């Protein structure tokens, strides 16, 4: 496989400001595509080879439709953006996305899961449920985006690269303030070692170098250790590990004796469902979740339009 080709792929992905996770996924599937065809250069392949690869994934590897579509998008990106040869008349092979109903926990089940959590882990789960955040949204939360006075959180660069405002539940105020103090403690320690600079998106660190070393840009939920940034190679403190949080939540769900296929994202589903059960307008819920299309929100229920002004988080009712 041409290493030079993969360097071009990464450069193009970063030029488009795709996330590091997207970069890793695209590179993985492009490499898999090339390996499948025994390291034949993509310039010497086309629609036929792409269809063969996708058929192999679906029939032999039996991957899920969403995984197949991710692999397809990766290869399309390679030909369209890197090689300058957009593949034509091939979209027909895209797998039909799975339409799954979300798993939702009852209030009693959520109380039970939370009883097996403590400290910052419990606080993160409370925000997943109490604010309707996605997993990476809670981990990437910055100190500056917590507004106690207005009782809200500002979610920056969420899914679809959109910002939104969601509710900050009162029951977490005290613990969240303690967590911010803890982040400040880590910040002061890192300052002594001159590794207190935090990652900032879209080259903001170059435009505002002082901001990258400021307290208010620090992550609320920081990693317990300093590490090397995989893109820049700089030594800095990143946010709490997503895989570690997922593992702790899975353990708590198991300890609570819940037999549903639940995960961190289940708390966001439960947030939406419980707000609708409490009579909040579906468009209000849509705004809080950051859904572009109302039909995405409607998967939770086909319920009412009663209206609602100031939203009280369902966490306050536990």
TrEMBL record:
The family database entries (Gene3D superfamilies) matched by this protein are listed as:
1.10.150.130, Intergrase catalytic core
Please give the family membership noted in the entry: Belongs to the 'phage' integrase family.
Protein name from the UniProt record: Integron integrase
Occurrences of domain Tyr recombinase (ranges) = 100-313
What are the residue boundaries of the Core-binding (CB) domain, all occurrences included? 1-83
Protein keywords: DNA integration, DNA recombination, DNA-binding
Source species of the chain: Endozoicomonas gorgoniicola
Tell me which NCBIfam families the record gives: integrase_gron
Alphabetized Pfam families for the sequence: Phage_int_SAM_4, Phage_integrase
């Amino acid at each position: 496989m041409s290493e030079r080709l993969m360097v071009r792929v990464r450069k193009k992905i970063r030029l488009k400001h795709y996330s590091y996770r997207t970069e890793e996924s695209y590179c993985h599937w492009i490499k898999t595509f090339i390996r499948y065809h025994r390291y034949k250069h993509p310039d010497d392949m086309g629609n036929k080879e792409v269809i063969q690869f996708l058929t192999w994934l679906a029939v032999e590897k039996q991957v899920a439709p969403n995984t197949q579509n991710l692999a397809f998008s990766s290869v399309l990106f390679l030909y369209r953006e890197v090689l300058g040869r957009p593949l034509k008349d091939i979209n027909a092979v895209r797998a039909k996305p799975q339409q799954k109903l979300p798993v939702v926990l009852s209030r009693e089940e959520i109380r039970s899961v939370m009883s097996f959590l403590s400290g910052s882990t419990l606080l993160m789960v409370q925000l997943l449920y109490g604010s309707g955040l996605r997993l990476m949204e809670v981990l990437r939360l910055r100190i500056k985006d917590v507004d106690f006075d207005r009782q809200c959180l500002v979610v920056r660069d969420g899914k679809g690269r959109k910002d939104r405002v969601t509710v900050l539940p009162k029951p977490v105020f005290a613990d969240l303030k303690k967590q911010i103090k803890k982040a400040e403690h880590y910040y002061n320690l890192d300052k002594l070692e001159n590794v207190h600079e935090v990652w900032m998106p879209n080259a903001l660190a170059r435009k505002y170098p002082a901001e990258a070393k400021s307290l208010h840009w620090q992550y609320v939920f920081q990693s317990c250790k300093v590490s090397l940034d995989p893109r820049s190679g700089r030594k800095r403190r990143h946010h709490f590990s997503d895989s570690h949080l997922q593992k702790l939540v899975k353990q708590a769900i198991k300890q609570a004796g819940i037999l549903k296929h639940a995960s961190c994202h289940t708390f966001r589903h439960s947030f939406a469902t419980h707000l609708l059960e409490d009579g909040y307008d579906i468009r209000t819920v849509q705004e809080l979740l950051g859904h572009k299309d109302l039909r995405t929100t409607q998967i939770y229920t086909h319920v009412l339009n009663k209206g609602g002004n100031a939203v009280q988080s369902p966490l306050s009712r536990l």
